[in-house]
Amino acid sequence: MLRVFQPVTLLLVIALSAGVPHAQDSPAPAPVPATGFPGLDRYRASRVPIYTDDYGERARYRQANAALKPPAPGERRVVFFGDSITDIWRLDQFFPGMPYINRGIGGQTTSQMLVRFRQDVIDLQPKIVVILAGTNDIAGNTGPISNEGIEANFASLAELARAHGIQVVFASVLPVSNYTPRSQEFFASRPADRILTLNRWLRDYCARLHLVYLDYFGAMVDERGMLRREFADDGLHPNKTGYDVMVPLVEKAIANATEGRK
């Protein structure tokens, strides 16, 4: 018996007989582009599952956020929001008894922070958010980005916060040093001129928008324009001595935000 195919069926038969590849035959993903910094290349390659499955890493604090009670009456909750410099900061030890919540995630860029800002800041109903970010953008952790792109992300974070009645404290990007073997690549991937330019923009943006600018950089830089040797063992992440310097600075910034002063 002669079989008569409908046009769509006929096209499918022809395509299959021509060897159209199935999904499992698709070419492997292209390798992560090299940056010229071996440590950064290894880091970026290790993060591919995160970048593809949970770009903002919202899973990190999802359970902790669900378990967190709303602020008590009169509580002046503050969220510290940022990357590894915030993530490794033990707020309960440096600010005992204070209603401060750590929502830092190591390695993150401002593009990732935008993705999780509602979950990890807005929904927690803080009075103030202290944002410390930008160093990983400059390094290119999630790919190349211009200073203008970073600035746009900062502006979006500020606009979201202000729309929900949250006072914003923008911290300067910390200086970086190359005084130890561990610090060499961190320093090379974060050009000082980009840090200075971004900090100038943050300072001026805060002045225009009546936000609080927190100048960690000025208190932690040495005569060579680098992070003082005693403040970090790897040239990037503060040690206890470094955090001891940061504590009174952020306390003053929070007080200024509480009182509505720049």
Folded structure, characterized:
With 262 residues, the protein is α/β, with parallel strands linked by helices. The protein has one domain (38-68, 76-259): 3-Layer(aba) Sandwich (Rossmann fold). The protein has 13 helices and five strands. It has helices at 7-17, 38-46, 48-53, 62-67, 84-87, 91-94, 110-120, 135-139, 147-163, 184-188, 192-209, 216-220, 240-259; strands at residues 78-82, 100-104, 128-132, 167-171, 212-214. It has a five-stranded parallel β-sheet, with helices on both faces. α7 packs parallel to α9.
Residue share in helices?
A: 40-55%
The CATH architecture assignment turns out to be 3-Layer(aba) Sandwich
Instruction: Write the element-wise H/E pattern from the N-terminal end onward.
Output: HHHHEHHEHEHHEHHEHH
CATH superfamily: SGNH hydrolase
Structural class: alpha/beta
Determine and state the CATH class: Alpha Beta
